[in-house]
């Protein structure tokens, strides 16, 4: 009887592990995404530079409207905690806020929240 209980417990824990290791998207260098509309005041999964850094570099902070920008994945890095961080560059070659060529984003979170949309 103990063997059956142990077997059932092992099977349930294995199923639980597979449910948490769900992978959302297979992203590779060169994939194209569009920055989606904000539902809140800030992007949570796209890491943008702070406003004071943009001002110090001579950038325009009024150009915070990134909605609809087409971006291309230029690099991918997986962290130990399971998150995947991608580097994004504008497809047309212009800079973000006239100061930064590349921004980073947590791709799984950004796709789930709608901050990034596959193009």
TrEMBL record:
<protein>
    <recommendedName>
        <fullName>Dihydroorotase</fullName>
    </recommendedName>
</protein>
<feature type="signal peptide">
    <location>
        <begin position="1"/>
        <end position="19"/>
    </location>
</feature>
<keyword id="KW-0732">Signal</keyword>
């Amino acid at each position: 009887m103990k063997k059956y209980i142990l077997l059932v417990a092992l099977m349930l824990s294995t199923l639980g592990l597979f449910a948490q290791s769900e992978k959302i998207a297979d992203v590779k260098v060169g994939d194209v995404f569009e920055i989606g509309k904000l539902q809140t005041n800030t992007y949570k999964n796209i890491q943008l530079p702070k406003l004071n850094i943009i001002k110090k570099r001579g950038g325009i902070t009024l150009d915070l409207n990134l909605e609809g920008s087409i971006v291309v994945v230029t690099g991918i890095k997986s962290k130990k905690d399971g998150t995947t961080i991608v580097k994004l560059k504008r497809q047309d070659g212009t800079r973000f806020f006239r100061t930064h060529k590349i921004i980073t984003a947590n791709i799984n979170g950004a796709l789930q929240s709608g901050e990034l949309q596959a193009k």
